[in-house]
Design a protein that fits this description.
mainly beta; 5-stranded mixed beta sheet; Tumor suppressing subtransferable candidate 1; 0% helix; 52% strand; WD repeat
């Protein structure tokens, strides 16, 4: 294989959720969550060996439902959060939970993409983020530079700040705010800024990008019509504090 040849890795099911595992500093690692209506969903731990230009992987079962969003703790490489669909009282709802992967998998996988998944293991549930009173979860954000104990979830038009306690087995809602306006307002995505002492987040709803102060949970700026259609995702430039990237259904960024 030539050095510049692409490395291809196939998933058993389709996937829309991907995140880097930033707490892992000794490897290039990503987590990918799958979406399957008929079978148990999976989280693939993907390690890229840049010296040999190969991909190693391991697979964890995520049996509770399709994964629509995944995020990894910035402080503990064994902990992650997912937003997933499940059926409750005949309705499909999107929930969120915090998980721990098996200890032996935290340091990565040494399997190749062609190895069988017969040794697939299951995630350990640490806690649920209770969204009963707040609606469907869109995403979960970890405080970028923290100790992995503060997370924010977006549920319909609500911003929820949680404190993880007792080794992340308990989530306590410490603060919240709601997006107000006409119509059925819903957040589609959000990102916690690594700048300004981690006191700001950015959210997307419809065609608008908004900034929020996590100390007061108040809106501090708004970019109207950031896209011609729905804003799907956004992220901060880690090196330039006033630079923000976004993408939307208008196929522009």
């Amino acid at each position: 294989m030539e050095d510049d040849a692409p490395v291809i890795y196939g998933l058993e099911f389709q996937a829309r959720a991907l995140t880097p595992q930033t707490a892992e500093t000794d490897a290039i690692r990503f987590l990918v969550g799958t979406q399957s209506l008929r079978y148990d969903n999976q989280i693939h731990i993907i390690d890229f060996d840049d010296e040999n230009n190969i991909i190693n992987k391991n697979v964890l079962l995520h049996q509770v439902g399709e994964i629509w969003h995944i995020s990894a703790s910035p402080a503990d490489k064994g902990v992650l959060a997912t937003c997933y669909n499940k059926t409750s009282d005949g309705k499909v709802v999107t929930c969120a939970a915090v998980w721990r992967m098996p200890k032996e998998l935290e340091s990565g996988s040494h399997e190749s993409p062609d190895d069988s998944s017969s040794n697939t293991q299951t995630l350990e549930l640490l806690c649920h983020l209770d969204n009963t009173a707040h609606g469907n979860m869109a995403c979960v954000m970890w405080e970028p530079m923290g100790d992995g104990k503060k997370i924010i979830s977006l549920a319909d038009n609500n911003i929820l700040l949680w404190d993880l306690q007792e080794s992340s087995t308990k989530a306590v809602l410490s603060s919240s705010s709601a997006l107000e306006g006409k119509g059925q307002l819903r957040f589609t995505s959000g990102r916690w800024s690594p700048h300004h002492n981690c006191t700001q987040i950015a959210t997307a709803n419809d065609t608008t990008v908004r900034g929020w102060d996590t100390r007061s949970m108040r809106q501090i700026y708004s970019i109207e019509n950031a896209h011609g259609q729905l804003v799907r995702d956004l992220d901060f430039n880690p090196n330039k504090q006033y630079y923000l990237a976004s993408c939307g259904d208008d196929c522009k960024d």
